[in-house]
Amino acid sequence: MSEIILLNRNYIDDILYIQQVNFKDSEDYLISKEAFLEVIFKKQVYGYLSKEKKLLAFIFMKKYDEKLRIYQIATIKTNQGIGGELMKFIINFGINNRYKIIFLEVHTYNIRAINFYFNNGFKIIEYIKNYYKNGNSAYQMKLEINR
Ligand SMILES: CC(C)(COP(=O)(O)OP(=O)(O)OC[C@H]1O[C@@H](n2cnc3c(N)ncnc32)[C@H](O)[C@@H]1OP(=O)(O)O)[C@@H](O)C(=O)NCCC(=O)NCCS
Questions:
Q1: How far apart are the C-alpha atoms of 4 and 36, rounded to whole Å?
Q2: Domains of the chain, each with CATH number or no CATH
């Protein structure tokens, strides 16, 4: 059976591979190996494993007092419902742990991701000009849970 687990450092190469497949032309999103190892150590990266235990997707998020922030979510193959499963998992995690808001920033050109977030109940709350280092802009999106 497929499952969602907290990832350990054994998955670092798979994470970097999925990141590379998705963001090779978008340096805005790239996270270094060292940075990933650090956030894995802090227990901030969850992964979706196939029934053969292969990593198919991951989500990197940070926990604040009342908020969860999604930094990166990526799947090896899109449109198979895997991203949706991971998102459902994080939303339930947020609800069960009494977080109030899940938020994220997304590149304004990343229409697929923006639609994915819309479909999962997120709303755009702000346009942030020059958000990324190279001057690209972002939308901040949020989902209210536990009101
Ligand atoms: C954005 C991203 C994480 C979404 O994940 P995904 O696995 O493609 O998303 P899903 O498959 O769950 O949902 C997308 C659509 O696939 C279709 N879908 C869902 N389940 C499906 C299934 N079992 N079979 C076939 N299609 C399905 C639906 O049309 C769904 O749209 P809906 O929400 O209107 O139902 C993924 O596309 C991705 O990795 N993109 C590149 C990385 C990126 O840009 N990340 C965001 C910035 S950090």
A1: 18
A2: 3-144 (3.40.630.30)
